[in-house]
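Entry type: protein chain
Record version: 2
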Amino acid sequence: MDTSELQRIKQRYNIVGNSDGLNRALDVALQVAPTDLSVLIIGESGVGKEIIPRVIHDQSPRRREKYFAINCGAIPEGTIDGELFGHEKGSFTGAIGESEGYFGIANKGTIFLDEVGELPLATQARLLRVLETGEYIRVGGTQIRKTDVRIVAATNINMQKAITEGRFREDLYYRLNTIPIQMPPLRDRGQDIILLFKLFAMQMAEKNRMPKIVLTPEAQQLMLSYKWPGNVRQLKNITEQMSVLSEKREIDLDTLRRYIPQDPESMQLATIANNNGQHSYESEREMLYKILYELRGNITDLRKEMNGIRQQLNEARALSGAQGFSNTPYLTHPNDEQRQSSSNPIATVTTIHNTQPQNIEEAVAEEISEAETLNLNSLERQMLVKALERNGGSRKKAAAELGISERTLYRRIKEYGLV
């Protein structure tokens, strides 16, 4: 590691800090810059990952060519392919002309794909082809085009977890991760926190022409012990807030506590291994709980459906007593057979039913025990009474509802003493 070269790079790009993690990341970037290898920058949100691809491009043979920084998470899924690879005229609504796309315009240059983990799977397949062959096809086109672009990508998600969940292609990950660069979180940078605070405080004072704020030793200790889930971005925001809102120019411990959240939510990358290097099964356990919960819900729904089917069979069996589907001889009168066969197609089944013993009653018998079987005569009488009540005593309407003739209905009424 060339210390003088690192200091020169830090001064040129206004990079503040001397932590080992930061120096290591810059050193790897300088070593890989002269090559055309793909680079994947890994780090939490707000750690300053966007500095590394700029350093790589400026120190590479492509430094005189174009450099594009693209936030993959900010482009809608429906248009991202056209943005990256271009499109033909009329390939989609609003495509009034041709577009080269970033890979066409940045030929011979460098493209920085920030938040690459947010790319749709279809776009990942296109990107993999560019990395492997340098070829791509515009949206709506058929002609294969060539491009010579160096790709530097960055992500703040756990890529191994994304691969396991099917959200990111494993082959693309290994193509991008030829040279990995790990950007350290702010909480691991030690005294860099104080140096960054001084830089942001000085910038605010010069920009807004106000006295610069400083930290007491106790406040500095709180700064160093805080987790900083938002990393450098959060530190800058808090420094700017205190510069504007605090009446004191010397920030003590009590003043600092008013601006730093006491119980911040963790925004660290999801990890696969614990501190002992052993696999953590918390995610798997949560998935199993979810599957078991959904399975229990499915069983409950299935039980409800079975109860509904049982009820429908009961109703169908009960209705068959009124419509002539039973083997009981008086349910269908011989004089009504011709009329029912022409006006009520259900009655036509009676002839078949009388010759074939397989009927609804037998189907119900498989589901309901013999002890639960209701008396058909009593059930038919109840259905006649309910049909007459629902139709205001109108025998014509009641007969139509039951699917029998008025003559048959009148005879049943007399038999059951409902006159």
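Comment: Residues 266-281, 325-374 have pLDDT under 50 and may be disordered.
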